[in-house]
Specification:
424 residues; alpha/beta; Spo0b-associated Gtp-binding Protein, Chain: A; Rossmann fold; GMP Synthetase, Chain A, domain 3; 3 domains; 6-stranded mixed sheet; 5-stranded mixed sheet; 18 strands; elongated; GTPase Obg; GTP1_OBG_dom_sf
């Protein structure tokens, strides 16, 4: 089964907590604080692997968690870092943040990797907070929480050549004749429901990868039929072979079909429309008059297309010459990574602990992630911890903000479930 889009939830590991500990050894009565730091949480990393060709694994597993960092311990022993979780994906995978819709990374080469969720930092042990006036700090920092987000994985096949054309024009037959690929072939529209890749090795030229992708129809750039699937997968190709049914057995005009498909390309992406094209006039073995091909060739010459080959995928007539020309043209086109507009790139926001102050009946309630983290790091029953809390509130500018809001001596300051009397 071929799966080319998947949505998964990733969560990096939380940082381990710092330790509150004091050195207690014989003959060392005042050893001082020696609580170690917590370990950082593990990252969630996506890595490109050439041995994978589909996102099928992500259909059955949607949640991925990295390991948490371990807590610190006494004797300044640091907690172990959480192990990174490395998730293998096929080459050509685009990673998008679901919330913003922005592109986080394009893993187009073997070994490319990207950390989609970074582990939380470990908290500092209490020995960091010892000062000449605070020699026995009985508090330590908690670990930072890990990141979590929903991401979309979108596979855009890595093929050098993409086969372009309406359904049932012979793209699958052509691929099966020039490679070992075995696509499903039948005489009805949309035989190809999933992309097929094949390695083509023309005699005397380097090998290249060719993709037979679900056919495109009029309105494809607006999502009609399987068109968007097709268009997404040919974005990476360096060269397009436009296969046209020249026989007319279905009553279609090959010139009109050629123009319609190029219009769909242009509507979807001008860059895709500008990509080099070789035209393969297929099913020539069914022509009742060779003049049909000459007229077709003349019309396309007027449109600016000069590389036109008369072929029959079924009998291999002209196929070898077509493949050799494709290899020659590819040798002149450098390999480029997928271009991503700056407006589409994901920008990671800096982690900030925020707070807000609400005033009601002379009670000043301070809430937010800043408060949650601060209260986890102090012992409200310890005088040293409370002095540290007051210092942090002052350094953060909260004390000054309370004064600007009109707090008076004796008013209540509330931090979650704890209430304190404010003294000017």
């Amino acid at each position: 089964m071929f799966i080319d889009i998947a949505k998964i939830f990733v969560k990096s590991g939380n940082g381990g907590n710092g330790c509150v500990s004091f050195r207690r050894e014989k003959y060392i009565p005042l050893g001082g604080p020696d609580g170690g730091d917590g370990g950082s949480g593990g990252n969630v990393i996506l890595q490109a692997d050439r041995n994978l060709t589909t996102l099928l694994d992500f259909k059955y597993r949607k949640k991925y968690d990295a390991e948490n960092g371990k807590d610190g311990s006494g004797s300044k022993c640091f907690g172990r870092k959480g192990e990174d979780l490395v998730i293998k994906v096929p080459m050509g995978t685009i990673i998008k943040d679901v919330e913003t819709g922005k592109i986080m990374a394009d893993l187009s080469h073997e070994g490319d990797s990207y950390a989609v969720a970074k582990g939380g930092r470990g908290g500092r042990g209490n020995y960091h907070f010892a000062t000449p006036t605070r020699r026995t700090p009985s508090f330590a920092e908690p670990g930072m929480p890990g990141e979590e987000r929903w991401i979309t994985l979108e596979l855009k096949l890595l093929a050098d050549v993409g086969l372009l054309g309406f359904p049932n024009v012979g793209k699958s037959t052509l691929l099966s004749m020039v490679s070992k690929a075995k696509p499903k072939i039948a005489n009805y529209h949309f035989t190809t429901l999933k992309p097929n890749l094949g390695v083509v090795k023309p005699e005397g030229t380097p090998a290249f990868v060719m993709a037979d992708i679900p056919g495109i129809i009029e309105g494809a750039s607006e999502g009609v039929g399987l068109g968007l699937d097709f268009l997404r997968h040919i974005e990476r190709t360096r060269l397009l072979i436009h296969v046209v049914d020249i026989s007319g057995v279905e009553g279609r005009d090959p010139v009109e079909d050629f123009i319609k498909i190029n219009e769909e390309l242009k509507n979807y992406s001008v860059k895709l429309w500008d990509r080099p094209q070789i035209v393969a006039a297929n099913k020539s073995d069914m022509l009742y008059d060779d003049e049909v091909f000459e007229r077709f060739k003349g019309e396309l010459n007027k449109l600016g297309f000069n590389k036109i080959f008369k072929i029959s995928a079924a009998t291999r007539e002209g196929v070898d010459e077509l493949m050799k020309e494709a290899a020659r043209v590819l040798s002149t086109i450098p390999i480029k990574d997928l271009e991503i507009d700056e407006s589409d790139k994901f920008i990671e926001e800096e982690k900030k602990f925020t707070y807000e102050i609400n005033v009601e009946d002379n009670i000043y309630s301070i809430t937010g992630s800043f408060v949650d983290r601060l209260l986890r790091s102090v012992n409200v029953n310890d005088p040293d911890s409370m002095r540290y809390l007051q210092k942090v509130l002052k350094d953060k500018g909260i004390i000054e903000e309370l004064r600007e809001l009109g707090i008076e001596d004796g008013d209540i300051v509330r931090l979650e479930d704890f209430e304190f009397e404010f003294l000017l």
